[in-house]
Amino acid sequence: xxxxxxxxxxxxxxxFTAAGYKFNETIFRVKYTHGHPDINKPSRFNLGxxxxxxxxxSTFSNEVxxxxxxxxxxVIVEDETTFKxxxxxxxxxxxxxxxxxxxxxxxxxxxxxxxEWNDGRFENSTIFEYSGKGSLQKANRDRNKIINLxx
Length: 151
Known about the structure:
The chain is α+β, with helices and mostly antiparallel strands. It is 30% helix and 35% strand.
């Protein structure tokens, strides 16, 4: 069984590196919430970097979506309190004017990483959620990694 698991991990690693991604230049298992025009539902992705572009990769390193590095305007980290105070367009679209009145239930420590970018025509804010202890530090670490890799 151990040999089978090692074999699968080796094949995954080979596919990952053959596609041009490096482990030290990758952010593993982030929770995408919303804001990318090519993805319609929340899911977990790896973030891979090539030529200053960010790729959202499935578990088996298939490219699901891309954010062009040259169109990134800002990379922001916010804690749950700051994020909740902002009424986003997505939330307004989902529940209308009641977005101002509804409060989200507090379950645990949350942080959000937002990548603001333009796809050539539309403004996008792609948002990733970090939860659990140290989530703000993890989001900030990933923000700094993104900034350094797309410069």
